[in-house]
Design a protein that fits this description.
8-stranded mixed sheet; alpha/beta; 28 helices; 630 residues; 5-stranded parallel sheet
Length: 630
Amino acid sequence: MGKIWLHIGSPKTGTTSLQNFLNDNAQVLRDTGRMNFMTTGRAHIAHNQLAASARTGNATVLMEDMLREADGAPEVTNVASSEMLFNLHTARKLSGAAPEEFKQRTKVICYIRRQDSYLEALYKQLLKNSRIPPDRQAFLDDAKRRLHYLHTFNTYAEMFGEENIIVRPFGPKWLVDGDVVRDFAHHLGMPITRDLRVMEGFSNKTFSAEMSELLSLMGERTDFNTREVIRELIALNHPGTIKSRDVFSRSERLGLMQQVTRENRRLVKRFMPDCKDFFQTKDLENEETALSTEDQLSSQLADRAAATEALMIAMGNLQARRKQEAELAAEATERPAPSPANDALEEDLAPPTWYREIYPGGDKRGWFHSHGTYAASFVERDPDQLVVSFDNLSQAGNDAYAREPWAQKFCADRGYSHLGVYAQEPTWFRDADLIAHLEELRDQGFFKGFKKVAFVGTSMGAFGALTFSSLAPGATVVAFSPQTTLDEKKVRWEQRFAKGRAADWSLPYSDAAKQIKAASQVYVIYDHFHEGDRKHVDRLKGRNVVHLKGAGLGHKSALVLSRMNVLKDVMEGAVAGTLTELDFYRAIRARKDIYLYRQAMESYLTERGKADRAERFANAFKKRRRLQSA
């Protein structure tokens, strides 16, 4: 039976370096029988799906899948890694869901910083991701609960056995060859040989507290992509912007460590007997190292000046690049065409992008099936991830030659394999031939040929995604403003979609509420103020349903997210199974600047007899727009 090593990272302990090493060398490690960087539960380089499924109560199925993958190579060491597992709440959820066999076959390894250093790293990390406001004292007051490592490790020890928990101190002094990758390989009994790629000297640079706080404000108040700015800042490497031990004062750090002195002693005794000096605080107790209040203020002001200057340069560089790209695009569109008529004809006759990939001269495998008023196309790009999409009402009846399935560009850009289902009639996929074709794919093992499957769609397409997800048990569903059925016997209150209600609802898969039980996670994105959509969502029951509510999104939730430029990010997180409610709510904060949001909220307020509030809301929206354009 294959053993599983679970690496539970903590912020700024080389987790990204370690995960990149495992990902970059996955094929070599697997082919040589040294290690299997597990694909189950992994999106790109991290197994965050395991932690996410634990929090939503769906971890048992995923851990059973991990066991099956480990059984496929019983002599190989299997490894999974996620920072999200370094969390007491997640550890308890995981413990309650873990099959007994998973407990018996798993070991845990974790790298930790001293608590004062950990909280500093966590503060900066959360700031960069705009997950907290720049308020050090508020963070400190709230984060003291994070000081208690022992509770988390005790929970994992109860789950897997104390002898199967390895806790390693992070820092050059403690690591084998001063490197987390080599230390990890050493403890797993795997030598670093020349055939492996190792990024020597790689480090995830730590910005100063002032820079981190400015990045948080920038992410909150501008339309700049924080990740782009961070990459620009790293390349810029402006003096005074890379710094550590600058969030809390020496006395604050010492006070933090004194709170967990006894607990750390127990932790060392139980899990780190060879690292007795790790939690010592002599560096904080030496009065000569303490700066005066005046010196601290002077240093803080200098850091703020350096951060401000660097941020302005980085944003200026990005703006210049955007302008240059816009000018190049404008030049391309302004070039005179030799023959407008011929160009228009060429555009009308241009094949769809998916066809260019699978036609005889294309570089992908795939197929196209027509079922009269319905059709389906498939492009094989990635053996791990399949996305199945369904048309919505706005696409039904589109007779363009270059017809694309919903989410075509999203899947192509990310290299996902894609099965797109087209509709020429707004009858909610009530078609016997189409249903038979999808069932035939199931029976042939088509869906089982992929590690992960996601069904996606909006409105009518969301119904398709929900109801046909049962064809691939364990799939993820991403449904925007869905309907569950238009069978008038089951939803007598539904008066929309006349053609849909007139369709044949005696066919199979006619009630999505009965078809989602086997899905791993069902992300439902909807406006809970929209009565028609909310009533459908209320019919979706189960612990696997993740409700993502957005007041003011209206029935066009996917369109509003697209107008905010966050639709692809939300879908990517949902398809991977890592999207959290907090991620979603942060993503849709900008909806207050979208006109469709204003229309929806005005309508809701007016319908509820609050016309005066609707007028004030509209005036506030207009005022904000004027200020933005000034």
